[in-house]
Amino acid sequence: MLLTHATLATMTAGYGLIPDAAVVIEGERITWAGPMAALPAEYRALPELDCEGRLLTPGLIDCHGHPVFGGHRAVEFELRLQGASYEEVARAGGGILSTVKATRAASEDQLLTSALTRVDQLIASGATTIEVKSGYGLTIEDELKMLRVARRIAGVRRVTVKATHLAAHAIPPEYKGRNADYIAEVAIPSLRAAHAEGLVDAVDAFCEGIAFSVEDLRPLYAEAQALRLAVKLHAEQLSDLGGAAFAAGLGALSADHLEYLSDAGIKAMARAGTVAVILPGAFYTLRETQPPPIAALQAAGVPMAVATDVNPGSSPMASLTLAMNMACTLFRMTPEEALLGTTTHAARALGLADRGQITPGLRADLCLWEAEHPAELSYRIGATPLHTRIFGGHPDD
Ligand code: DI6
Ligand code: FE
After folding, report:
1. Which residue of 20, 63, 160, 219 sits 20 to 30 Å from the alpha carbon of 244, by its own alpha carbon?
2. Domain ranges for the chain
3. Looking at ligand 1, which atom is closest to the CA of residue 69?
């Protein structure tokens, strides 16, 4: 297939803009990209899709999300608006634990049906690859149930799903005050079982005062490394527990949130090549006031990804273009950084070397936008100017 007359943002060096460009796709792969004038003659006879000047970018990648869960948390939203903090709600047994109750009560089919509403919104915002975390089951069986749902999504939607084990997301009531027992008796065995079933691509945890300390997490991350699984971590979202440096020390793909990241954490991430995943939806929803240290991350050369963190509590948002808008307006990231954050750098945060840019050899996951300039994707609030999504070389109907 031949795409012609595109305004191409290859995302290979900044936007990597090429006006009036062509892209050649053979099977699932990109085989050529460049100016129309340089298109080799051998490709001119391929079936053509005329982009009519529209913007063509890599398919967007949501590298941090929790779209599988039972119920919703609108009541907690009201409580927080009346003054309760996210941590107070969590400590009173609401928050993540109320979603755990609803997720345990839901069947695999019910979880799939409700997750698909969010997945469809992500796809409508341009996603071709998404991450799906467990973490609302918190028993061996319920964590496996969530991860099976994550795998089933890719069977019923045109999207790549990376499944992340997040049993260390919260301490369930039956383990209250016994973090080490929970890690030993639920988190590690569920990881082993999920890995044996081929259900897990990476391991994550919530490193926070209301969840797990670095010390709690050491045995789980040792197990992840023994299984040769990639690791990442929710770190420094509400306080600084040194999570990012711990994760970077293990060669983590990413450390995520990072509002309270220290200079030592930044240095450790830069040294390890760990991606900083910026999650403005949670910052916005929780009305946080301390932004992540964007300028210091830039100065240290830490690649930044941007993701939705779609979840029922801190980020009920399933739009990547809205996440990009928030990253710019709330954190002063540039629209170019925001788009790198949902393409090139998001691919790296998921350990995917075969996507995130438009260059020969990579997967032909592309988005054609009703836009002329890539800054438009971040500029409009909550708009989804998607014209045509191309997944693995095939346009959506
Ligand atoms: N940090 C978050 O922002 C989400 N998980 C986490 O560890 C929130 C999850 C929730 O509130 O349901
Ligand atoms: Fe999260």
Report:
1. 160
2. 2-58+357-395, 60-349
3. 12
Span from the CA of 363 to the centroid of ligand 2 (angstroms): 27
Give the residue, by CA position, lying nearest to ligand 1 atom 8: 314
CA-closest residue to ligand 1 atom 4:
314
The CATH code for residues 60-349 is: 3.20.20.140
pLDDT given at position 141: 98
State the Cα–Cα distance between residues 283 and 281, nearest whole angstrom. 5
Q: What fold characterizes domain 2-58+357-395?
A: Urease, subunit C; domain 1 (2.30.40)
Cross-strand pairs, 369: 55, 386
* Amino acid at residue number 8: L
Structure tokens at 322: 């809205």
The structure tokens listed for 321 are 């273009």
Region 376-394: what's the mean pLDDT? Answer: 96
Q: Which atom of ligand 1 is nearest to the CA of 86?
A: 11
For the segment 13-24, the average pLDDT, to the nearest whole number, is 98
Task: Give the closest ligand to the alpha carbon of residue 282.
Answer: 1
- Ligand 2: distance of its center to the CA of 309 in Å? 5
pLDDT greater than 90 at residue 280: yes
Note residues around ion ligand 2 (Cβ under 5 angstroms): 309
The span from the CA of 385 to the CA of 373, in Å, is 12
152 pocket-lining for ligand 1 (C-beta < 6 Å) = no
Distance CA 79, CA 148 (A): 33
